[in-house]
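call fold(seq) -> C-alpha cells
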Amino acid sequence: MKIDIVALKENLQYLDQYIALRNNYKDDLFTEIVTYQETRNWLQNNSIVNMIATQNKMLLGVVILYIDKKNEVTIFVKEKNKGIGTLLLKEIEKHAIKNGLTYLLSWIEESNKASKTLFIKEKYTLMHKKIKKYNNINYNGNIFKKDLYI
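ret:
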C-alpha cells in the first residue's frame, strides 16, 4: 500500500493523531505535553516545516525541520525499522534543497541507536558531541550534518 508524505499544515485532519504521537515522544523531544490549540498556533510559524507519513488515513511518522534552529531536523515514527524515517528524511531533504538550504543538522541522543543508524545510512556525518540540558538533567548526544547540493 502506498505511503503518502504530506505537509501537516495542509492536512489538519491528522492533527489529533499527530498530537498523540508527538506527546508519546515528549521525553525524547525534551518537551511537555502539547494541546490541540498550542499545536495549531505552533503550525503557523513559517520557520517550521512539519511533514507526515500517512497510509490508509493513519499517521505513521513525522519529520520536523526547524529552519530557525540552524536547519535542525527531528523525526519520530509510530513503528521503528519500517522505512518510514528514511522516506520522511528524504522528503525533507528535497524540500530543503528546493528552498535553498545548504545543509541539515540533527542532534541525536547517544542511546538512540535507530536514529543514529538512519542518519548515518542517509550520509549524515558525525560532527561533534553536544550535551543538551532538559529539566536540569544533561543528555549526551551527537550533532550529525549533511551538506545538501543544489
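Strands lie at 4-7, 48-55, 58-66, 72-77, 103-109, 125-134, 137-147.
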